[in-house]
Structures are given as structure tokens and as C-alpha cells.
Amino acid sequence: MKGLLVLVCSVFVFISGAAFAQDKMDTLKESKHIPAFVFYTLKDSSIFTKDSLQSNTPLLFIYFNSECDHCQYETKQIVEYIKYFKGIQIVMVSREPQSAIIAFREKYHLVNLPITVLQDGANKMHDYFDFSYIPLIRQYDRKGTLIGAYSENAHILDLLGNFDEHR
């Protein structure tokens, strides 16, 4: 009887895990290309859309919160390895008030780096991406096709490796 219970529980866990993995894959299938989005610049709150991105350039897209430990860690890693992101557009977006985003940008010296920091002023991020954790990290090749998707931390070497694979 105990063996049967263990078997039933194991099957349930396996099926649940498979269903979760499939849900994740379905989500990624829905987001195969850069979505049409509207965010706002910090300088003058002008509109920044998909058309504002550099054309024919790989993109590293990060949705963050300035108080999130994982977001801070990821930002430190990108800053430390910024020279390896040459030729890749980096866009970071937060829904926080501009003052918090600007303080974060200054704390990590992002203003001096080739990183675009934006505000999701209308809180529409969930309209563009399906996620539960931050930082949300998406990588797109030069054609705008998704090549990497992460929630929470992504290892910096994985990010760089994905871009190298798809150049």
C-alpha cells in the first residue's frame, strides 16, 4: 500500500512538472518576437516604442525593480561585463516612479553606459509579457526573434553565450 502511494505521488509530481514546463513553452511561443510596446524616457517622458529600438541590432531587455535583490545583482553583472555587450542594445524598464528609477540608474552608473533606462508609466508590462518574477530578462537576435528568456537571475555567461550563438 505504501509503495502504491509513493507511485501515485511520483506520477502526480511528474505530470504537474510536465504541465508547468509546457505552460512555460506555450508562453515562450506566444512571445517569439519583440512585442509592440510603449514606455517613457526619463529625460522628458517622451514615448519610446519598438520602433525606437536600433534596427538590425540584438537586444537585451530587462524589466526590473530598484529594490529587488536579483535585479540589483543582474545590473551589477551587466555593468561589470559591459564591454562584452558591444553591439547589443540594452534596455531596462521599471514601473516605479521616475525618481526611484533615476536613483537606481545613478547608483549603478548606468547613465554613463550604453544602456537605455525607461519607465513603464502606464504599467502595461503584463500586456506585453507573461511573467511572475523579476527581473524579467529577454534576449532577441538582430531580427527581433526571441533567443533567451529568464526570470530572476540569468548567468552572465549564458546571456553572452546566447548572443554569440545567434550573431
Shape, principal axes of CA atoms? globular
Q: Separation of termini?
A: 56 Å
**Uncertain ranges:** 3-30
Question: Per CATH, which architecture?
Answer: 3-Layer(aba) Sandwich
| Tally of structural domains | 1
Radius of gyration: 18 Å
Helical residue percent band: 25-40%
Q: Count the DSSP helices.
A: 5
- Summed over residues and divided by their number, the pLDDT gives a mean of 85
Largest sheet, in brief, is: 7 strands, mixed
| Number of E-type strands | 7
Order of helices and strands: HEEEHEHEHEEH
What is the highest CATH level, the class? Alpha Beta
State the CATH topology.
Answer: Glutaredoxin
Main sheet strand line-up? 2-1-5-4-3-6-7
| Strand residues, percent | 15-25%
Structural class: alpha/beta
Task: Write out the CATH superfamily name.
Answer: Glutaredoxin
Give the gist of this structure:
This protein has helices at residues 2-30, 69-80, 98-107, 125-128, 156-165; strands at residues 38-41, 47-49, 59-63, 89-94, 115-119, 136-140, 146-151. With 167 residues, it is α/β, with parallel strands linked by helices.
Explain what the structure shows:
The protein is α/β, with parallel strands linked by helices and 167 residues long. 39% of the residues lie in helices and 20% in strands. The chain is built from 5 helices and 7 strands, in the order αβββαβαβαββα. It has helices at 2-30, 69-80, 98-107, 125-128, 156-165; strands spanning 38-41, 47-49, 59-63, 89-94, 115-119, 136-140, 146-151. The chain has a 7-stranded mixed sheet with strand order 2-1-5-4-3-6-7, with helices on one face. The protein starts with a helix and ends with a helix. Mean pLDDT is 85; it is low at 3-30.
